[in-house]
Amino acid sequence: MDLNINSPAYYTGVYGIDDEIYWMCRELAQYVKAREYSKFIKTIGIVPIIAPEGEIKKGLWKELKHVSLKCGFASVCLQIDYKEYVEADINKKKILIIDNILKSIKTIKSKAKIDYRMFEDDIRLFCINNHIVLK
User: Which residues pair with 64 in a beta bridge?
Assistant: First the structure.
């Protein structure tokens, strides 16, 4: 599966790209590339949204979920708590991004016909191999 994890919306524009987060996401995408979690969906785009409450209340940075079985594509944008992310050390930021990825896939698993259990198991194994301790 092609998993495209984009830089966090809003946050990246203010704080720039966290190199460790960028490389973790690239490695994770490579890790799942040879796996198949759905016979219908071949590519999933994920954009974590990390924006202050004021921006979200203005109607900006909305969560989105889109699945197109016909095109073999899905995209998901889910929010991460801004204050928690900004105040977190790099290890906690990694955990928040991984949690966002898992939640993103979980929200579309039925419509996209994704084997979520297999995906989650693979992500947890990736985390173990990369010394990322999830809840």
Answer: 77
Identify the DSSP state of 45.
E
Q: Using alpha carbons, list the distances in angstroms from residue 42 to 29, 50, 71.
A: 13, 26, 9
For residue 91, the SS3 value is: helix
Q: Report the relative pairing of strands 73-77 and 64-68 from DSSP bridges.
A: antiparallel
Task: Please give the DSSP secondary-structure letter assigned to residue 32.
Answer: H
What are the CA-CA distances from residue 86 to residues 14, 22, 79, 133 (Å)? 11, 16, 13, 19
What is the spatial distance between Cα 59 and Cα 67, in angstroms, rounded to a whole number? 22
Query: Quick check: 72 and 40 in contact, CB under 8 A?
Result: yes
The SS3 of residue 78 is coil
Q: What is the pLDDT of residues 44-96, one digit of tens each?
A: 999 999 999 999 999 989 999 999 999 999 999 999 999 999 999 999 999 99
Q: 116-129 and 90-112 helices cross at what angle (nearest 10)? A: 160
Name beta bridge partners: 79.
49
Question: Global pTM?
Answer: 0.96
Alpha-carbon gap, residue 88 to 93, rounded angstroms: 6
